[in-house]
């Protein structure tokens, strides 16, 4: 998973599908759990991008809608942006597209708690997220 | 296939309501194999064990498991539970999932149990609960809606 861009409050992350991400032997469909992880990561990053500070956050909930199946043929892009930010909560929306496609394969909506317990991050957006 | 195995040796019993049945369903999913998921069955229904691996950590500061991994665990558990009830050849397709994170997921083994809330003709709604140390202390819970595979086949 890599960060492609952070543009104001909108972030874009890219994931190149691997063979172990497949949903069923003999199929090309990617497991929805992988899309879920991608959306969770991009949404979390969008909180930092909007808030412009790296205080710890926690996912309160994440809802995903899977419109159609994603296949291993193309990279996946997750575009996430904050819809509303308060001191305590961030509401994020995220779309997942196959690279080069205008129609999303899935969309997610997440709520994050801000300033949760935990060590504050130093200087950069150095939080590595992998799944 | 099961008949041939049965005729040779005791082999896995692939009837629903049995550990091997659920494990066989899981092992058809490459991503479930990657996560090392193991299925178990007890009197309360099917549950799936996600063994702890360092690569599952999402927050190194706490440390806590990545929320996305819990999401994947919940979705896969729902998928095999809905599949088991319907007994179709192909897996049901996940339409949506709604997951609430109740507590921080610590760096340890995680379990998920599934309950089929409503089994319709075309869709199925599955409730999944996740816990770690104690079954009564939930760390996450989710509801997953699935479209069942019909003979006509969908996508």
From TrEMBL, chain A:
It comes from the Bacteria. It holds the Pfam family 4HBT. Gene3D superfamilies: Hotdog Thioesterase. Residues 33-103 form the Thioesterase domain. GO terms for molecular function: thiolester hydrolase activity. This is Thioesterase superfamily protein. The lineage of its organism: Bacteria, Pseudomonadati, Pseudomonadota, Gammaproteobacteria, Pseudomonadales.
Automatic annotation (TrEMBL), chain B:
It comes from the Bacteria. Keywords: Hydrolase. Residues 65-136 form the Thioesterase domain. GO terms for molecular function: acyl-CoA hydrolase activity. This is Uncharacterized domain 1-containing protein. It comes from Marinobacter segnicrescens.
């Amino acid at each position: 998973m890599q960060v492609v861009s952070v543009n104001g409050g909108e972030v874009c992350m890219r994931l190149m599908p691997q063979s172990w991400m497949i949903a069923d032997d003999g199929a090309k469909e990617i497991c929805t759990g992988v899309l879920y992880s991608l959306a969770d990561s991009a949404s979390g990053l969008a909180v930092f991008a909007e808030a412009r500070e790296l205080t710890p956050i926690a996912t309160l909930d994440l809802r995903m809608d899977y419109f159609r199946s994603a296949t291993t043929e193309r990279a996946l892009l997750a575009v996430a942006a904050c819809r509303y930010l308060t001191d305590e909560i961030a509401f994020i929306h995220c779309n997942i597209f196959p690279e080069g496609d205008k129609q999303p394969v899935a969309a997610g909506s997440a709520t994050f708690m801000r300033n949760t317990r935990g060590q504050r991050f130093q200087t950069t957006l150095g939080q590595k997220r992998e799944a | 296939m099961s008949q041939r195995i049965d005729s040779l040796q005791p082999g896995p019993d692939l009837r629903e309501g049995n550990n091997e049945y659920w494990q066989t369903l899981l092992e058809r999913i490459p991503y479930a194999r990657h996560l090392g998921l193991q299925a178990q069955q007890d009197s309360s229904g099917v549950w799936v064990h996600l063994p702890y691996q360092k690569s599952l950590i999402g927050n190194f500061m706490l440390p806590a498991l990545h929320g996305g991994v819990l999401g994947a665990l919940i979705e896969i558990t729902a998928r095999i539970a809905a599949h088991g009830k319907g007994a179709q050849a192909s897996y049901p397709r996940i339409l949506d999932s709604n997951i609430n994170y109740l507590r921080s997921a610590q760096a340890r083994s995680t379990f998920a149990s599934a309950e089929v809330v409503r089994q319709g003709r075309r869709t199925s709604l599955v409730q999944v609960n996740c816990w770690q140390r104690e079954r009564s202390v939930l760390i996450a819970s989710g509801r997953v809606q699935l479209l069942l595979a019909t003979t006509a086949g969908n996508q």
